[in-house]
Specification:
The protein has one domain: P-loop containing nucleotide triphosphate hydrolases (Rossmann fold). It contains nine helices and eight strands. The longest helix has 22 residues. By secondary structure, the protein is an alpha/beta fold. Strands 2-6-1-7-8 form a five-stranded parallel beta sheet, sandwiched between helices. Strands 3-4-5 form a three-stranded antiparallel beta sheet, covered by helices on one side. The structure holds adenosine-5'-diphosphate (ADP) and deoxycytidine diphosphate. Deoxycytidine diphosphate binds next to helix 2, helix 4 and helix 8. Belongs to the cytidylate kinase family. Type 1 subfamily. It comes from Nostocoides vanveenii.
């Protein structure tokens, strides 16, 4: 059996990470969070005192990054030199500046190459991989067996992230989340196209779905696409 590659893209708060992990678990596949790689470069630069606006220095950091990524959807470990940085990459400080790294085209080239290798290796080890990010369906793995753009309305995405970070989706909490969703997507979309489904990419809008409904819908798309191809 050929290993299966499932590519998922989408804007912030659409549910890429959580839904992709659940879908990987369902099929027994490995999981790759490509956003964690941009975040890890950011943490590394902040710790080394590298100015994020110094494009060449940030590319050099991406090239020498001592990164470890676990593919287990139940425990997607992220390490730098063996140190667990899973929490460090998710701080608001990192979320606020990660787009400066993600819009560095030299960094993107380095990480995209690494992601292609990881996708092949994880798919081989696990029989399949669910890889998620912003440019997986279009640039990193355009030949993936299943390609899905996971979206949700800005309102739904703001409410989800706000609930996750602040435990509420009231007006103040949503306002505090605005930069993380709206400004960051605007910056990120200058280098990747993740607002409209490219040719051959299935659009899954989860605005009206709860978490389990989103997982079920994605499982159905994967199952149907693989059945059609066999
Ligand atoms: N369909 C959904 N309905 C409600 N909440 C969801 C749904 N999908 C994801 N979530 C929740 O929204 C938050 C953001 O999801 P996440 O997977 O981090 O999105 P992304 O990786 O696209 O930024 C998480 O707390 C997640 O549990
Ligand atoms: N394939 C990818 C993955 C992430 N990025 C960028 C976009 C984001 O600003 C950062 C972090 O991505 P991540 O998926 O962790 O972000 P969110 O979970 O949506 O908050 O990296 C990218 O440009 N290309």
């Amino acid at each position: 059996m050929q290993p299966v590659v499932v590519a998922i893209d989408g804007p912030s708060g659409s549910g890429k990470s959580s839904v992709s992990r659940a879908v990987a678990r369902h099929f027994g596949y490995g999981y790759l969070d490509t956003g964690a790689m941009y975040r890890a470069v950011t943490v590394y630069c902040l710790r080394q005192g590298i100015d994020l606006s110094d494009a060449d220095a940030v590319v050099a950091a991406a090239e020498e990054l001592p990164l470890g990524l676990g593919a287990d959807p139940d425990d997607p470990a992220v390490t730098l030199d063996e140190e667990d940085i899973a929490a460090a990459i998710r701080t608001s400080e990192v979320s606020a500046v990660v787009s400066a790294v993600a819009t560095n085209l030299g960094v993107r080239a380095v990480l995209q190459d690494a992601q292609r290798e990881l996708i092949d290796a994880i798919a081989e080890d696990w029989g399949g991989v669910v890889a998620e990010g912003r440019d997986i369906t279009t640039v990193v793995a355009p030949d993936a067996d299943v390609r899905v753009l996971l979206t949700a309305s800005e309102e739904a995405r703001l409410a989800r992230r706000s609930t996750e970070l602040h435990g509420s989706a009231d007006e103040a909490a949503v306002a505090a989340t605005h930069d993380q969703i709206v400004r960051r997507d605007r910056d990120d979309s200058t280098v990747s196209q993740f607002t409209e489904a490219a040719d051959g990419v299935v659009l899954l809008d989860t605005s009206a779905l709860d978490f389990d409904g989103s997982v079920g819908a994605l499982v159905e798309i994967v199952t149907a696409t693989l059945a059609r191809a066999s």
